[in-house]
Amino acid sequence: MAEICGAEVDEEGFLVNLGDWNKEIAVEMAKGDDIELSEEHWDVINFLRDYFEEYQIAPAVRVLTKAIGKQFGKEKGNSKYLYSLFPYGPGKQGCRFAGLPKPTGCI
User: Fold this and answer.
1) In the predicted model, is pLDDT for residue 106 greater than 80?
2) In sequence order, which ranges of the chain are alpha helices (DSSP H)?
3) What span is annotated as the signal peptide, if there is one (predicted)?
């Protein structure tokens, strides 16, 4: 199994132990995808972590999009904005950077 910053990841790059997550791991995962994390990325990553903590599940993209719009404004609550931050999918890639399990329904 592969490792990022000493934490085990599965074949898709998701953390094996969610408790291993820290910001350094998120930064390294993003670097691996040629992304430099901005404040906007961290807004979504922190939102995903808070959502997971509350509901014990990663939000589906539709739920994520609506919730981001509600919290950060409608200009950010749309697929185009979220995909500009997470080109491999705001649900899947965002959850991976946030140290969360792969969202249900993501291929």
Assistant:
1) no
2) 23-32, 39-55, 61-72, 79-85, 92-97
3) none
Catalytic status, residue 5: no
**How many C-beta atoms lie closer than 10 Å to residue 53's C-beta?**
9
The DSSP output letter for 18 is G
Note whether 90 and 51 are within 8 A (CB). no
27, 35, 37, 106: which one is catalytic? Answer: 106
pLDDT digits (tens, 9 = 90+) for 12-54: 999 999 999 999 999 999 999 999 999 999 999 999 999 999 9
d(Cα 63, Cα 16) in Å, to the nearest integer?
25
Question: Average model confidence (pLDDT) for the chain?
Answer: 93
Could you tell me the pTM of the whole model? 0.92
Structural domains of the chain in order of their starting residue, each with its CATH number: 2-97 (1.10.10.370)
Contact by Cβ (8 Å): 92, 29: no
Structure-block tokens of residue 91:
């649900």
d(CA 4, CA 59): 24
